[in-house]
Amino acid sequence: MSLPTTEDRDPQSIGLSKKSDEEVLSLLLGRQVEALNAAARAIPQISRAALALLRAAQDNRKIGYAGAGSAGLTALADCLELPGTFGFPPERMRILFAGGAENLLHMTGSYEDSDEAGASDFQMSGLGEGDILIGVSASGSTPYTLGTFRAAKASKTETIAIANNPGTPLLKEADHPIFLETPAEIVAGSTRLGAASAQKAALNMISTLVALRLGHAVRGHMVNLVADNEKLRQRAQRILRDLTDCSPEIAATTLEKADGRVKIAVLMLREGLDVTAAENALILHNGNLRAFL
């Protein structure tokens, strides 16, 4: 019987016990690199998905992520990272994870078997018409994630699917399917390896491209961050000094006046504005700092 790629066994996994540690690790890394190449082959699909996410972000719509198991963890990571890295409003972010928060410490696989649970979680998420949902499933047939997508379709929520098997239900259900053609895993079915690496790469590519188009990443800096801890305060000061050529002292005091908001601080220094005027200027340009640089 022919198995899906994500369940098949890599022929190179035979005889690993006879290889040295270095040989095994080199093989593991090599297969991960091959898996990452799947993201390169999917760039046209990734580009279309990013455009859809950009439209939703520009319209101030909600952005949801759905998944189960390791694919769900990959989706969860992207969802949680976007507010801190690129300043996506956390109140507009949603995560639909099979089993919920209680299932994170000791994941139980049975939660992913219920499409009804997926549909129920979607209904409780508040996602609806004009919003967007990103579903991640290595197999492309996880019932929970399919349940979220079918509910999304009924609610006119746009969908992006990332899967590692071709022609699977999730890809067929999606408005914007992304097929990542990763090789069989060294440990058959362990999709936290190559498949997850490719998923993470695709998600990184989508969100970073959107952040660039929104002006949240400028000249290699995450200018939409809000400095609310010491590490971010130091980073924000470096960004401000690079973009305005100010002194460390001025960077620190200006950021304090701007409540840690880098974009506002940049406009205060480059344009000679106070906080309110900087806020209004940024609003006029849809939050994009590039017009002033």
From TrEMBL:
One of its GO terms (biological process) is amino sugar catabolic process. InterPro entries: Etherase_MurQ, MURQ/GCKR, SIS_dom, SIS_dom_sf. It holds the Pfam family SIS. It comes from the Bacteria. The keyword NADP does not apply. Residues 50-216 form the SIS domain. PROSITE patterns: SIS. Signal peptide: none annotated. Keywords: Carbohydrate metabolism, Lyase. The keyword Lyase applies. GO terms for molecular function: carbohydrate derivative binding; carbon-oxygen lyase activity; ether hydrolase activity. This is N-acetylmuramic acid 6-phosphate etherase. It comes from Roseibium marinum.
